[in-house]
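Side project, low priority. Logging it here so it doesn't get lost.
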Amino acid sequence: APGLARPDVFNWFRHIPERLRELRPGVLVLGFGGNDDHGYMTGLPDGVTVDGFDTPSWRREYGRRAGGLMDAAERAGAFVVWIGLPITRDPEQTRRFDAINAVVAAQARKRPGRALYVDTYTTFASDTGGFTEYLEDTSGRLIKMRAADGVHFERAGGDMIAREVLRQLNRVFDLTSWRKRAAGQAAA
């Protein structure tokens, strides 16, 4: 799906607020940017131009868009979890993804207690910091985490991201006290 750079293809800035009003979630998990690693943007405000990918004008506009979605979620009463882009097999693509991640992470940091950024870059890097398709599980077995295209995730990788999102959310919200209450009631 198109990301934040091409609202003429799909307008997330209209779609997300509509869905927020309809569903009224407490948490909104987003992941954008894999198709935004270029300098072409549509839907620019009057008088705004973008001088190419990762230029100051591009970073400002991309930040405005990412921050705007975070603010729309907050207005609707939802906490935002933004999943960052991963390291990829292609070092140049990875550099572009890093630029997108930096903009989004900065926007999340501007909204403490309302948004958080989940880093997938380091989570899916090899021990030496480079790209790898396989990571060891807790028993030391190698598990295929990344698709053969060097960008997307296998199911195991998606599961790993989901566990990290839940771990991060548990830092913000109390997601596990029900277990203690249930155990205490069972013992009584």
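Brief comment: Residues 56-75 form the longest helix (20 residues).
Revisit when time allows.
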